[in-house]
Amino acid sequence: MTVDSSRPLAGARIIEISSFVAVPLAGMTLAQLGAEVIRVDPVGGAADYHRWPVTDAGDSIYWAGLNKGKRSAAVDVRSEQGQQLIQRLIVDAGVLITNVAGRQWHSYETLTALRDDLIHVEVSGRADGGTGVDYTVNAGIGFPLVTGPADLDVPVNHVLPAWDVACGLYVALAVIAALRHRDATGAGQRVSIPLENVALATAGNLSFLTEVMVNGTPRQRIGNSIFGQYGQQFSSSDGAAFMIVALTGRHFRDLTELTGTTKAVAALGDSLGADFGDEGQRYRHRDALTGLFTVWFSSHTADEVSAALSSTSILWERYRTFADVVTDAKVTDNPLFTPLDQPRIGEYLAPGLPLAIDGAYPSAVAAPALGDHTVDVLRSAGVPDDEIGALFDAGTVA
């Protein structure tokens, strides 16, 4: 038998009951790895079915983006008949991922009475069972109060839902680990992933929390600088913005040579008693160093800055808008992106799985419309056609 190395989860079937980011991202990732992922939504769609951005016709670009490669079944989740039908689908698949927490009819206890080797992965807002979304969890962790300019005195939310993304990848990892565990032992698993704990773990692992516990000093706002290293935003003479990062001694030496400040930096170090071979000293005196480097950047055009930086070891990038990025070679000439004809949305370059497996990126597969696969999904779970017809007549499925 030939095994497709780009689809290591082929043969696994997963039921997804979800909305918004974390679990839809997990389901899409598992589908991109070869699993058959069936998203079960209420008739008419879940809360994210029309989420912005939308097309002029009102179709959700967002929903299509996070549900690529899945199958879709639409079921009346409020009716007892619909709930029992979804239970049949879950029992047949053997894996459920969901962020619709607290529903007894698809709880671990209820479902394991029907299949004892079930893998049940549930995302909640908070560890105590309370509700929470990325933006409220983030507000309570501390990041908005260290984001933004140093002199700002109000919180700044990050536009990227980082905790949702991290949580979704944890969900996918949990499913893969549980499948391996079941293959080895025959036993299922119950996995609970509070979104808030994903954020807390990350803040702890990256030392934002530990710094306070050990040193008693909370992180402060530093604008576009990089904590503990030398990194800063600079502007060219024609107004383009660049992010410059010097992580190593070599990076820093190249930066001083490029800007013609080697002697000035040495003199500054002597006057301050600072050793700029040490990253902590470079960070501590970052404002004085930035003042020296700014002269060079502000006297050169963006093209000149880019050309000069390209010949050095310095880590850098020009700030770009999303509109700039979609026409850049990093998208147009990147094998991660392939043309996708997405029904209702149009044709565009869509990213597949961002893992090159044996040198190739699994390509994106179009997202379904709501209920596209209801009949096929029911048949594959052993529901006879006459019962399927009755379910449609009753409005239990769509």
TrEMBL record:
InterPro entries assigned: CoA-transferase_III, CoA-Trfase_fam_III, CoA-Trfase_III_dom3_sf, CoA-Trfase_III_dom_1_sf
Domain of life of the organism encoding this protein: Bacteria
Keyword Secreted: no
Pfam entry (one): CoA_transf_3
UniProt keyword annotation of Transferase present: yes
Keywords linked to the UniProt accession: Transferase
Gene3D superfamilies reported for this sequence: Crotonobetainyl-coa:carnitine coa-transferase, domain 1, formyl-coa transferase, domain 3
Single Gene Ontology MF annotation: transferase activity
Name recorded for this polypeptide: CoA transferase
Source organism of the structure: Mycolicibacterium arenosum
